[in-house]
Design brief:
Largest sheet of chain B: 7 strands, mixed
CATH topology of chain A: Aspartate Aminotransferase, domain 2
Helix content of chain A: 25-40%
Structural class of chain A: alpha/beta
Order of helices and strands of chain A: HHEHEHEEEEEHH
Bound molecules: pyridoxal-5'-phosphate
Shape of chain B: globular
Number of domains of chain A: 1
Shape of chain A: globular
CATH architecture of chain A: 3-Layer(aba) Sandwich
Largest interface: A-B, 47 and 48 residues
Strand content of chain B: 5-15%
Distance between the termini of chain B: 33 Å
Strand content of chain A: 15-25%
Largest sheet of chain A: 7 strands, mixed
Oligomer: heterodimer
Number of helices of chain A: 6
Chain lengths: 204, 404
């Protein structure tokens, strides 16, 4: 059970969505949340998606579609599975076929470091923050905002791939990618995310 | 100003078309999706307790939705998911059993399907469809089946569920699981039984553009309790041991507020379908007077969630020219399932592309017209005026469009 949100803000956001009749498909609130998160966290790009686990899978998939990925020895199954969905083989030892390193924040879990490989961060369990590495996956649940997630990165090309991979729409195609899926965040999710982001700003 | 006076005001009537600089028929785009909008007060009443109790996931609304949908479809189990893409991908991953294999799917369908197969660790195998139902052709499936096949992903379209018996027979003989993407066939029946329990499972979407609006969302229906348990485990990223070998877990939960929205849509199912049928009838009457535009017929019981026209001779414009002309008028329309998947960017690199004649023929001719709650009967009449003008001045319109 989460800390509840203030109802009046939610009500106002719902009325806005119903008045616009814009419910999904990278609508105005999703775009606002993408931009708001990037600004609040001081990162180049934030890409909102269905949830934090989808964020981790999408991030991994945007970096590599095969090969090994180095994870902490006691990484949780949800991290392992999220990487397997991307087509990667999690392992705790650095090998020649490793394509990335994944750290898991919040449980003191660190993978064997390998500076020559891109570092991805499973940050679903912690509140949003700027972290080192190529990209990080966060969950809106950590902000008491229900289902939802996002990826942060300073790499514009990676962000373009992620924005392309989260949907199928020709007008939301920014890069050549190998696979795409539906990992879109809805306007309702984004509305809760925006309220949570506002609360986070106020608390700081 | 009515369209008729506007037409009279210009010396050359074809200049009245928006594509040649005339005023568009629609100031606001007319979409091709349902976009059902329930009463906002009722939505707020359902959403408020979830928000105030901080229970935005795993709550009573999703359970109620699953129950009501199971009843609606006449199935034992309904598993709500974050969207249909998750449902399809989870099922294909489960049927892959941890080994690479092929998923047989129709070449004339939704562009996401080959991607879902690939994320599930499988390769798509595109098959031809039937001329009338637009669904997988069982004979084509039979030819494509082999030891590499991990599943058959058949699609029930808005116009027809397809040859479900024929496909299930082929699947049974080959001992291959078959699942149905029934996203566009909510409420349709096959041999007197409402869709929901055919094959190993069926998958539906709750995306706003689909018949039942849950913002984003989806659900899987099945009579197979073991499969439902696997799906719930996959969906809930459970800490429990996996219920079967080689299944992958993820988070595919549907949020409570999405479930609230879907519950209100489901309650309005009859009214939504009635509205669709009125619009469909208006399009049928319109096409009846326009030689070369044939409204693709639907089987009895169709939810009429789409209106697709077959553009052919003697219609003066090609299908693609029609897309240009109608888009300029503010109809946010598109070619229907074109290009076919095996000839599209959604076909994996290195795929051995074969000629699939029916899929290729259909994909070249079909055009989707605006549908859903934001399209009134007046809008359809207006669209009819535009098409009447194109029919009357076909040579002039075509010549001007094709001018280099
Ligand atoms: C036939 C078909 N299947 C599956 C999907 C995916 O649905 P969702 O948007 O819920 O992921 C769609 C969406 O357009 C579709 O048209």
């Amino acid at each position: 059970m989460n800390e509840p949100m203030a109802w009046p803000q939610v009500e106002e956001a719902v009325r806005g969505i119903f008045a616009r009749r814009y419910f999904a498909n990278n609508g105005p609130l999703v775009r606002q949340l993408d931009a708001g998160l990037a600004a609040a966290l001081g990162v180049g790009h934030a890409v909102c998606v269905t949830n934090g686990t989808a964020a981790l899978t999408l991030l991994a998939m945007a970096v590599a579609r095969s090969g090994e990925v180095v994870v902490p020895p006691d990484a949780p199954r949800s991290t392992i599975d999220a990487l397997r969905w991307a087509g990667l083989v999690p392992t705790s030892a650095v090998s020649a076929s490793a394509v990335a390193v994944v750290d898991v924040l919040g449980e003191g879990k660190v993978a064997a470091s390998e500076p020559s490989l891109p570092l991805l961060v499973d940050a679903r369990a912690v509140s949003p923050r700027r972290v080192a590495g190529l990209g990080a996956a966060f969950s809106l649940e950590s902000m008491n905002a229900g289902e939802g997630g996002f990826i942060t990165t300073d790499d514009a090309a990676l962000a373009g791939r992620l924005r392309t991979m989260r949907n199928f729409h020709p007008s939301e195609t920014f890069a050549d990618v190998d696979v795409r899926t539906n990992a879109k965040m809805s306007e309702m999710q984004a509305a809760l995310g925006l309220i949570a982001l506002e609360n986070l700003r106020a608390a700081r | 100003m009515t369209r008729a006076t506007a037409v009279g005001a210009r010396s050359n009537p074809v200049e009245h078309l928006a594509v040649f600089g005339g005023r568009p028929a629609f100031a606001e785009p007319r979409p091709i999706g349902q976009l059902f909008t329930p009463d906002v007060e009722r939505f707020l009443a359902l959403a408020r307790p979830a928000v105030e109790q901080g229970r935005l996931s795993n709550g009573a609304l999703v359970l109620r939705l699953e129950q009501q949908l199971a009843e609606f479809h006449g199935v034992r189990h309904c598993v709500a998911v974050a969207n249909a893409a998750f449902g399809l991908t989870m099922l294909l991953q489960r049927f892959g059993r941890g080994r690479p294999g092929e998923v047989i799917l129709p070449a004339f369908s939704y562009r996401g399907l080959p991607h879902f197969a690939r994320i599930a660790g499988q390769s798509p195998r595109f098959c031809d469809v039937e001329e009338r139902t637009h669904g997988l052709d069982p004979r084509a499936v039979e030819r494509a089946l082999g030891p590499q096949t991990s599943a058959i992903l058949a699609v029930c379209n808005y116009n027809s569920p397809g040859d479900i018996d024929g496909l299930c027979a082929v699947a049974r003989a080959a001992h291959v699981p078959i699942l149905f993407d029934s996203v566009y066939a909510v409420g349709a029946s096959y041999r007197g039984r409402r869709l929901g329990a055919f094959g190993a499972a069926e998958v539906y979407s709750l995306h706003a553009t689909k018949l039942l609006n849950g913002f984003e969302g989806g659900y899987v229906t099945t009579d197979d309790g073991n499969l439902a348990a696997v799906l719930r485990w996959q969906r809930d990223e459970s800490a429990d041991a996996p219920p079967a070998d080689a299944v992958l877990g993820t988070n595919a939960r549907l949020g409570e507020l999405h479930a609230a929205m879907a519950l209100l849509s489901l309650e309005s199912f009859d009214a939504i379908v009635s509205g669709n049928r009125r619009r469909f009838a208006a399009y049928a009457a319109m096409c009846a007077r326009l030689p070369g535009l044939r409204l693709v017929p639907v089987e009895a019981g169709s939810n009429c969630s789409m209106a697709v026209v077959d553009v052919s001779s003697p219609w003066p414009l090609t299908r693609d020219e029609m897309v240009t002309v109608l888009r300029a008028e503010g109809a946010a329309i598109a070619a229907y399932y074109s290009p076919p998947l095996h000839r599209s960017v959604h076909c994996p690199p290195g795929y051995d592309v074969q000629v699939l004649p029916v899929a290729e023929r259909l994909a070249a001719r079909f055009l989707q017209l605006p549908v859903g709650e934001l399209v009134s009967l007046d809008d359809i009449a207006r669209l009819g005026d535009v098409l009447d003008l194109v029919a009357r001045r076909g040579d002039a319109v075509a010549a001007r469009l094709r001018r280099p």
